[in-house]
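Box S2. Input/output pair 1.
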Amino acid sequence: MPRVVAACSSCRAFTGDVTEFDVEGDTVRRVIAALDSLYPGFGEHIERRMAIAIDGEIHQDALFEPVGSESEIYLIPKIGGG
């Protein structure tokens, strides 16, 4: 199962201070859906506010990226800019 690490304090409002998760999914989108089913509203928060790194590489459009059973997915705050 992919391991997800929420490296942002804003995620804790949804997860009750849980920061690491092992969830089913073969794409980032499916992993986010699994997290959202555990913590309602968390999926939308991730899609709007988080950047996603898979196995150490940050992806711009990560939703359809494949993940393996040993993958590590980090949720990090998006950097705003103007």
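Box S3. Input/output pair 2.
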Amino acid sequence: MASTTAIRTILPGLAAVLSSQAVAAGTGLNTRDQNPMLQAYYLPSIDIQQDSGWYLRHSLFITNTFQKEDTANESLLIDVENYRYDLSLAYQAEHWRISATLPFIANDGGSLDGLIEDWHDTFNLPQGGRVTNPDDQISLSYSRNGQTIFEQTRSDSNIGDLGLSFNYRLTKAENASTELGIGIELPTGSIESNSGNESTDIALWLNKSGQLSEQITFYGLIGLSLPGKGGQLKDHLKERIWLAQIGSEYDFTANMTGVMQIDLHTATLNDTELKAFDNSVQLQLALQFKNWFNNYHVDLFFSEDIMVKSAPDITFGLRLSRINFE
């Protein structure tokens, strides 16, 4: 509620300084669950482009998570600050698009723990055990039946798994489009640094978008991820992970758009009672600034776990996109 009030207060001021020149841009917010234990697995996301040409995109995600869960036979601790940078290059033709994304993933103790604890204190929000653990230290561990399944206790970083995708536009009307997509993630990352699963992941999805009015666009994705049997979680992974995204965009001006999006996916592990690996629901909120400079677009966004503990506490995102360059 506080976030919504702040956005309504800030947006009119921002809108006043933006140009009224219309600029085409993509539809949907390309995001994923940033759970550091799931970073090595392919979770596709909505990405609908309107105009033909080349697209270059830099995406930075900063995630801070503290989560501790214990059941009769499972134990989980996630205390980490995760950084993910995605470099994406795509080419959009009239009916199809090819794209490649190479991530760089880092897990660290970070520096935001104290700030988040102060924020929780200020607004009387639950700390969830944060104050009982040392600040700015890294500890990732998951055990089942007394056996350690996943563990990382030192900072590390590495290139992640290279993702390649192909989208084909099935239908395109004046105010709507439907796309079918297929993607593959190649094992360029490392199990040792938890940046890859050293196996091949495959995903299929369907994108849909349509305009309700000149200012409002609705869109959605339904997809299926087939993770390869690799990584530290390989013996417990689900064979299939279903995903969905649904959202709306509102054009405050020709060059500034507000986005609200819900991200969902089914459980990632078999026979688990832990929320971190169960069904997940997240809320994404974003401001998109089109043609900020020299045909560059800027997205500012953050995510919150609606289904508590089903995703990281909070993720901040920044995306810089260049569209239709030669």
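Caption for Box S3: The radius of gyration is 20 Å. Helices lie at 2-16, 113-122.
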